[in-house]
Amino acid sequence: MSNIAIGLEKGKALREQMLRLGIRQEDIVEKFIRSQGAGGQNVNKVSTCVYLRHLPTGIEVKCQKERSQAQNRYFARKILVNKIESFVLGREAQERKKIAKIRRQKRKRSRRAKEKMLRYKKMRSEKKELRRSPAIGEEKG
């Protein structure tokens, strides 16, 4: 991996993270693709988009964040390492559970559920009304 476009410290930190997770360079398939979008003639002529695939996990990453191929190689590896780390630690499943829970909480009640809830509230208020002590001075006629 070239350290020309990125700092030596960033490259070293990424290599250490890969080593810690047991990700070997041989397990990564790297391809270069032509990018799309803004970037002018450079984007049209040079294959700056980087595609990485980690063979043991099957995780794929595509990065065309920058106009420079070297920077995209770094960012793609960083994204890949983070994905593998979350896959290994099972964080992804926990995040999906949290998102699903929030989605359920924010979801609008169905008409039937709303009617049921309102019936229950009405019954409860009537029950509470019966528990009230009669007001002094009021006479029923």
Describe this protein's structure.
The protein is α+β, with helices and mostly antiparallel strands and 141 residues long. The protein folds into two domains: 8-89, Double Stranded RNA Binding Domain; 94-130. The protein has five helices and three strands; from the N terminus they run αβαββααα. Strands 1-2-3 form a three-stranded antiparallel β-sheet, covered by helices on one side. Helix 1 (8-21) runs parallel beside helix 3. It is elongated and about 90 Å long. The N and C termini lie far apart (95 Å).
SSE topology sketch:
Elements: H1 8-21, E1 28-33, H2 40-45, E2 49-54, E3 59-63, H3 69-89, H4 91-106, H5 111-131
Antiparallel strand pairs: 1-2, 2-3
What's the short story on this structure?
With about 140 residues, the chain is of the alpha+beta class. Helix content is about 55%, strand content about 10%.
Number of domains: 2
Q: Could you give the order of the helices and strands?
A: HEHEEHHH
CATH class of the largest domain: Alpha Beta
The fraction of residues assigned to DSSP E strands is 5-15%
CATH topology of the largest domain: Double Stranded RNA Binding Domain
Coarse structural class: alpha+beta
CATH architecture descriptor name of the largest domain: 2-Layer Sandwich
Tell me the helix content.
55-70%
